[in-house]
């Protein structure tokens, strides 16, 4: 998902997507600890996407004040 696509989402959609991605990220980390996954770069990519979503939510929060 690109930055432009993130900006097009509503705040409720962003929060929903963020919650889902955080849950997936935790599960991925657990699975990787038990047995290494094929692509460990996915962990980094997921973490960065979560950061992008949080950044957009924070920017919207600051703009509304």
Kindly describe this structure.
By secondary structure, the chain is mainly alpha-helical. The protein has helices at 3-8, 11-34, 41-64. The longest helix is centred in the middle third of the chain and has 24 residues, at 11-34. The mean pLDDT is 93.
What percentage of the residues does DSSP assign to strands (E)? under 5%
Number of helices: 3
What's the alpha carbon Rg, rounded to whole Å? 14 Å
Parts with pLDDT < 50 across at least 5 consecutive residues: none
Helix and strand succession? HHH
Mean pLDDT: 93
Using DSSP, what is the number of strands?
0
Distance between the termini: 27 Å
The SS-based structural class is mainly alpha
**Coarse shape:** elongated
Please outline the major beta sheet: none
Work out the helicity level.
over 70%
Can you summarize this structure?
The chain is mainly α and 65 residues long. The protein is built from 3 helices and no strands.
């Amino acid at each position: 998902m690109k930055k432009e696509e993130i900006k097009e989402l509503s705040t409720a959609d962003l929060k929903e997507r963020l919650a889902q991605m955080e849950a997936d990220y935790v599960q991925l980390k657990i699975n990787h600890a038990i047995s290494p996954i094929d692509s460990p770069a996915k962990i980094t990519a997921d973490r960065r996407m979560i950061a992008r979503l949080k950044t957009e939510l924070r920017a919207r929060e600051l703009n509304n004040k």
